[in-house]
Amino acid sequence: MSRFAKALRIPKFFEYIRIWVPISLAIGIMTGFMMSVFFVLVSYLRTLLFPFPIYLTMILGGIATFLGVKYFGDEVRGSGISHYISARHGHKEFTIKGGVTKFVTSSVVLGSGCIAGAEGPAMYVGGTIATFMSKNRLKTKESASAIMTLGGAAATAALFQAPLGSTIFAAEIPYRHDMDAPAYTPSFLSAIIGFFTFRYITRFILGKTPRLIILHLEEYSETLEGLLFAVIVGLAAGLVGLIFVNVFWFCREFSEQYLEKSVSPVVGVILTGIVVFIIFFMLPEEPPFDWTGFNLLNVLDQQPEFSIVVFSLLIIATILGTSLTIGFGVSGGVFAPALVVGGGVGGIIGLLLDPANVSSYVVLGMSASHTATTKTPIASLVLVIEITGFPTTFLAPIAIANVVAYFVSGNRSLYTGQYEDRTEVFLEEIGEHELLDHYSVGDIMTKNVYFVKSSNPVAIAKQLIIETGKHTIPVIDVNGKIIGIVTPESLQNAPDDASVIDFSTPAHMIPPSLSLRNLLDIFLKIEEERVVVVDDEQTLLGIVTLRDIIRTTRKSIVLA
Fold first, then answer.
1. Which of 39, 74, 319, 492 is most buried per CB count within 10 Å?
2. What domains appear along the chain, each with residue ranges and CATH number?
3. Which has more confidence, 194 or 87?
4. Quick one: residue 266, left, alpha or beta (phi over 0 = left, psi -120 to 50 = alpha)?
């Protein structure tokens, strides 16, 4: 082979294709097949139960979850995405028993009309299929996580007919402020295969390809006024999303504290039935069977008399219903509820600001609400664009609404197990190495530390920060003892002639004998990246940073 070929790493490229393409194809076909069976089963069950009131039929979903938890295990409870996230981070496992039970119970839950989504069960089943179709290839934690991503992407792509958004969602959902893209290409391949497999099987069985959202959208105005309205939608959806998340977690924590795990789903659906029963009598007319799901959004164009009251009741019912079902442990997901809540928020704003174009605001609200409740702004944009038929003029407004909703809604989501970012994964890997017990802080700290005296003016500290590029400058007294630190942030508005001690902040101080494992625990608790090392008299000895730990252990991790 030529040097040019070696430079292009062609052997490694073919090795990549040899390993990942067959896995992606197999997982995509199998997952697409199972999702089509899941969809058809739910559809037939809904048709069978249509004549009965929804507030009675949903009790079947609670009973199904009760039986699943009682006889097959706790993993059946709640949103399957939380289990998927924990499995991706190596804290839980997928089992055949759990996958089959989740498949069956979730089919009954959704078919009975419970206020729940399908993405949780889909990603649980997809993760199970991916894990067991490639079990002999799970040689490392990284490869196991990547293969689970293939299954999650294929399952959601099939069920929601959105391969690109599902690929991004599977990579983005494990984190609140990051995304994991090592398996991006094979995940996209498995998503496409799952998408087409589902499409052809459901078309063969049902005679048509199902679409979740069918809105007749006009082009969205990208004028300054239109973009300002997008900001308003993002702000409103973010605030409502914040309420949604807090209500959901209150219900979840209440049920876990006061109810048995197997009983709480039944209690949840009974309470949900009461809520739905009450709201039924508050609505101006009899709603369709799956009135809390996508169908209500789909009939928006045909029923322009939808009012602020109807949208408000829709939001309240979906938030309470989801919190009392999924929060109480009923098997299901939150994708559809998040979109419906956002659609209601967007509908209200549309009626107030632009009554002739309400559908456009429904779309903006859907994406912004999903962002607020799941912390997946990019995936939310692409998913909504895909499932609504690629209205390209909505890209900029949705992006604006998502960004606003993301920051307004705080740091919490409807899912458990999400890491802040990929740094936490690396810190976990570091924490597993025995080197942390063999080294102490004194072995890796920086001993020659720049400092200022408490009597120095602020100008000296600012100049020192500029010249050295250091972020943390210790402040010492005349005896060399630490009395605080200064940083660029603490000195930002400080007058140059002021005393540096007046703008110092308390320092985190540790002894040099502390092990690196204990130091790592400290970093995780204080959420800072550097601490000051002192002796028993609090005399400055050095500074140690999180980067020092990473640099010390990186070589060992790579070799391992």
1. 319
2. 12-420 (1.10.3080.10), 425-559 (3.10.580.10)
3. 194
4. alpha
